[in-house]
């Protein structure tokens, strides 16, 4: 008897074989988020994605220590968790819906000798099942867009963070205020989303759960370049991806078209990206 299909659209999207091949191959099997290209003269997707991790870590009010408990929401392949565990020796709990990504994450952690610092759990970040006040730092990169109830998501973050000195840092793709909703439809369709949040919307959620110190950094200049490079890489590596049956022709074409649409709306300014650093 085959296992039941995932009921959550996010889980279905990331467990899909073509999606897994796309992210694991073009990102190098570490990250599943947008990269920072503006700080490098010779960009590559993998390097830029890793730079996004180190840049977000640099925005923390103070470096994590071996006593810091970190929760990575929507942890993907676990690249950020391995970076934090390696550099700061902190303990990281990865919470992620895709079991395809989770198994990959666990294997990499074992290979790199980090499984004693990193725990990988399958779960929904709107209902983590974790203890109250269990973490000093909540971290997330380009995952909150998948939330079906962002008010509930932020209430859960407020619950699991320590009451004094707790910190939340995250990046996310968003809609510009007053964005052309028709123009964003291809982005929403590819990612199986109903909507995208705005900067103002996130600021309201953060104020609602009591964050007095919220800093936003606009990183949108990287977004169009990121999707443009992905589209180029898909073209260059079509023979590898399709010829070796890692993706079928239809899946390859669907992903390529999605990258082109995302690049177009990012360069128009309707689709934006940025980082939030929030302290209690």
How are the secondary structure elements laid out?
Layout: H1 9-15, H2 17-26, H3 45-58, E1 69-73, H4 79-88, E2 91-96, H5 99-111, E3 118-122, E4 137-141, H6 150-160, E5 167-175, H7 181-191, H8 199-208, E6 213-218, H9 223-236, H10 238-243, H11 249-268, E7 271-279
Parallel strand pairs: 1-2, 1-4, 2-3, 4-5
Antiparallel strand pairs: 5-7, 6-7
How would you summarize this macromolecular structure in one to three sentences?
The protein has helices at 9-15, 17-26, 45-58, 79-88, 99-111, 150-160, 181-191, 199-208, 223-236, 238-243, 249-268; strands at 69-73, 91-96, 118-122, 137-141, 167-175, 213-218, 271-279. It has 280 residues and is α/β, with parallel strands linked by helices.
């Amino acid at each position: 008897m085959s296992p039941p299909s995932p009921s959550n659209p996010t889980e279905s999207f990331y467990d899909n074989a073509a999606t897994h091949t796309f992210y694991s191959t073009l990102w190098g099997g570490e990250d599943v988020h947008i990269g920072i290209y503006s700080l490098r003269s010779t960009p590559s997707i993998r390097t830029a994605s890793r730079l996004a991790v180190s840049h977000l870590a640099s925005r923390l009010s103070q470096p994590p220590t071996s006593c810091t408990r970190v929760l990575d929401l929507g942890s993907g392949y676990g690249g950020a968790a391995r970076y934090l565990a390696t550099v700061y020796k902190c303990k990281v709990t990865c919470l992620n819906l895709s079991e395809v990504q989770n198994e990959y994450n666990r294997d990499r952690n074992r290979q790199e000798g980090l499984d004693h610092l990193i725990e990988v759990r399958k779960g929904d970040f709107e209902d983590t099942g974790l203890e109250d006040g269990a973490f000093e730092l909540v971290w997330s990169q380009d995952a909150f867009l998948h939330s079906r109830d962002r008010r509930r998501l932020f209430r859960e973050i407020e619950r699991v963070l320590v009451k004094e000195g707790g910190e939340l840092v995250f990046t996310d793709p968003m809609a510009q205020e007053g964005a052309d909703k028709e123009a964003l439809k291809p982005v929403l369709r590819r990612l199986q989303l109903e909507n995208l949040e705005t900067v103002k919307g996130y600021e309201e959620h953060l104020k609602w759960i009591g964050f007095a110190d919220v800093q936003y950094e606009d990183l949108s200049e990287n977004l169009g370049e990121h999707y443009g490079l992905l589209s180029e890489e898909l073209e260059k590596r079509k023979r590898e991806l399709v010829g070796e049956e890692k993706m079928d022709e239809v899946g390859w074409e669907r992903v390529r078209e999605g990258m082109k649409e995302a690049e177009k709306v990012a360069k128009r300014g309707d689709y934006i990206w940025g980082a939030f650093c929030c302290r209690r």
